Fold this protein.
Amino acid sequence: MEITIFNTAGEDTGKKIELAEAIFGIEPNEHAIYLDVKQYLANQRQGTHKSKERAEISGSTAKLKKQKGTGTARSGSIKSPLFRGGGRVFGPRPRNYGFKLNRKLKQLARKSALSVKAGSNAVIAVEDFNFEAPKTKQFVEFQNNLKVADKKVLLVVSEGYDNVYLSARNLKNVEVMRVDDLSTYSIMKASALLFVESSFKGLDEMFKLN
């Protein structure tokens, strides 16, 4: 698949770039995408939830009343879950929600996500650029020129784009990410996927196509 390279003014530069078929043109594996996104979201969970069970709360352990003869149910301690202020039964405990996925499956998931976006014409190539200083207004103008201001934008860059990152970090629905940090979740979340020209080389290296 061949796409046009635009400049920051949104104009056709006359150059084109060939998207690697092995990355942008495979048959998407939806289950691989699902698993990788599920793992990403699971890793975001802190898992620090905790409630006290009957062994952990303060209170007397003395038996409240005799076992038999009261006409009511037996009770052993004020810390019983049946009483107000008692411990909770099967309450949440701290845990790690993460799980393992094989490297090849994660690569397949990313390729599948990129192929989905390429198939829906959501991939845009932009020639290499940079800002002299961090300016949000300049990034907004860049979005307007490329007609992606009303979309969720993921700009994939290579090294040395600190000013671009700082210019975009206050904008809603905009994410600037180095090609090495690209994840299936971030790809699928975006409705417009912008790649600077030099980032395609990093993409090839990431998937070991060179």
Remarks:
- The first strand starts at residue 2 and ends at 6.
- The two ends are 18 Å apart (CA to CA).
